[in-house]
# Entry
Amino acid sequence: MRAAWRERWGGPEVVEVRDLEKPAPGPGQILVKLHAASVNRVDLDSLIPEPRILRLFLGPRRPRQKRVGVDAAGVVEAVGEGVTDLKVGDRVFADLYPYGAGAFAEYVAAPAKAWLPIPEGIPLETAATLPHSANLAIQGLRLGNGRTVGEGDRLLVVGATGNVGPFVVQLAKARGAHVTAVGNGDKADFMRSLGADEVIDYRTTDYTRPAQPYDWIVDVHAHQALGGWRKALKPRGVYQAMGGSGWWLLSLAVQQPAYKLATRKTIGLMLSWRPFKQADIEELLRLVAAGTLEPRIDRRFPLEEAADALAWVDQGKASGKVLITFL
# Structure
């Protein structure tokens, strides 16, 4: 089979497509012939993890995990011993982040518990956009204590045009929130098409100093210091980042608890994320089936161009999801 592979740390350019032996499902596993996979920020982060100290655990000189890609959708080709919930011919999808990745390949063998069936009426390509990014989006609109974005809340979405942001905007609008989307001004029409009430071009406007403070801020990939957000939030406001640069992540150990004590606001990294949480995934599927949530596909790349697909996302060119397709 053909599969994306990397032997060294680096950017998208280190990814190549190789001929590998087709896997066989072991006990408790299924073998899936993939039809589509989608590119996520986590795929790029795994190529060259930050902060650099993480490489001590992931491979000091070269990555221990050579496979690439987490979002997968396809059809079950074989089942291993002990698998009873899925059968050959079932359409399934998964977030393979907890299972060693490998979605950028013609076939993948992974535990049956990693997969969920795709309901009739939902295309495989649509399903491939949901496991990681949409799951992050729906969980980013709530706290671990159950508090959620609701009717009338003012929400700022920083990074509204990429993998996760378009899902956040649509989900928040479906809940009755007033949404301000931050992104490249050249993509203003795209952000409005998602339902955003207001659009801010980060290149020309300091979005950390709004005229009116927000109830919630969802920051897909943080660049601003936490202290810069204090005046952008209402009392008891929430700022949740889903990731950030190496220096930003290192600063959290001191800043996050300090700001919570000093301001009584929730400011920091999203800590309640659970990969491919079944209840959330099922809710996303219901919203897609109802037409409330529309995954936006920017473009498709064949497997042989996996490095180009990763570079397209890394350079911020995508408006929505980028897919890897298999012929």
